Amino acid sequence: MGKRLSDNLSSLYIGAANRLKSKKAKRRIIAYVESYDDISFWHSIFSDFEDDTCYFEVMLPSNKSLCKGKKSVLMNQLGSRLGENMVACVDSDYDYLLQGVTSTSRQINNSRFVFQTYAYAIENYQCYAESLHEACVMATLNDHPLVDLVGFMTMYSQIAYPLFIWSVWFYRKRNLNEFSLTDFCSYVRLDHVSVRHPEHCLMAMEKRVKHKLQDLEKTHPKALDEIEAMKAEFTYLGVTPENTYMFIQGHHIMESVVMKVLTPICNALRREREEEIKYLAEHHTQYRNELTSYERRMLSIDVVLRKHTGFKESPVYKKLENDIREFLKRIK
After folding, report:
1. 74-116, pLDDT tens digit by residue?
2. 158 φ, ψ to 5°?
3. Which residue of 25, 149, 209, 247 pairs with 132 in a disulfide if CB–CB is 3.0 to 4.6 A?
4. Close Cβ partners of 254 (under 8 Å, ≥ 6 residues apart)
């Protein structure tokens, strides 16, 4: 009796397991990425394109070592095996804007099986201006817009734009000793950001940028025509004075710009909410209980930035989205 019951249960289990499997096997597409953070980012992207015909499995470039980074994804043996079932996903860095000047740029821009961010890196998407207020709300549970963050990032971009063109020009000339990426970022950093007067830090940055521009224009007068031509080319590539922050080094934008702005904003929003709780509480016990409940629900702003997907509304992201859609159309 016991054996018959066991056999029946086993049969039911196998039948249920078989029903969970797709009647038609899905195509498995491996997507190699540069680092741990990229796994979550690219998974959130590819999941929008999965259906009953295919799915993506996102992984690091090697299961035999801890090697990571763009070179590990593109330059080792994976590069020769990329195809319909194996793709590479990389940050564009400046390679999109270099437009084939280097071998890496040519590979990234010309391969049908390499997906690039178009923005400098995934951090730029996480710092997409239109999503920053929502990130503050998620972190503080306070919807009070203390600063026009879209306007702030637009002004930041407009100030940085002319010097950014020079930065890419030096990369195209492969002259990084005179004006490196680190040098450029030092001019477009933000110092102390005041929530009441956020424009002050932009004014200080503008002074540094203008001084450096004058220096470069004086030192390289023959480059001015090329600089103007690059501005027209960049407009075609989707880079404008208003969205330049999407193409500046992602780590710099995250740590030296956006976090410099959002940290004091979130601190102010939390204090505002805490003062409200204190004012409305009828007694000390209610105040402590409500404050504890609020504190448990707050999130760190840097964690929110790295997890949200508001960037999917970005025009730059639409280029990546179209690449994935065209790839799937070809293999299906």
Report:
1. 765 455 678 889 899 999 999 999 998 888 898 899 989 999 9
2. -60, -35
3. 149
4. 123, 126, 127, 305
